[in-house]
Target: Endonuclease V
Amino acid sequence: MVAVSAPYVAGFLAFREVPFLVEAVQRLQQESERLLLPHRVLLVDGNGLLHPRGFGVACHLGVLTDLPCIGVAKNLLQVDGLVRDELHREQIRSLQRGGDMFPLTGTSGRILGMALRSYNNSSKPLYVSVGHRVCLQTAVRLVKSCCRYRIPEPIRQVQKQGGRGGAGRPRVGKQISRQQRGLGLPTSR
Model:
């Protein structure tokens, strides 16, 4: 457990949480080397390239650990002309079954991520974006393969184990698990 003393500031999540995540990843890497687990991908409850500065928590963590990293967000950040307007709601309604998706293309013409209906019974999409060392197609495929419910199972299990603050963020000063943000690596206790 760690004490989080910095407040949450929108757009700067990485500066608050990445130091703890890097330490957790290093511990998990040591454990996975002992267990001979060669394949590692981090799933992060947050954004990668789909971010106001184009470099969200999934990018930050991926670069610092040099591991493939995928951002998985529950809400769309309004970036590069992407807005939650009637057109966006219509695109969401067009997602009829699990695995359906549409690209999140900014006014710049750049594809920043993908809206994914993660499973059949979910009406709300996930917003998947590249963090580090993975292409968007692979990121979406991996996220979809981890979804028994709306949220990818590695993130969902971590969130079930740890207490959450309002809006999905830890409360200031609250003791939180170092894996709270949902890393897609095996944990050791």
About this structure: The CA atoms of residues 109 and 176 lie 39 Å apart. The chain has a mean pLDDT of 85. The two ends are 12 Å apart (CA to CA). Strands lie at 2-3, 42-45, 69-73, 101-105, 111-116, 126-132, 175-176.
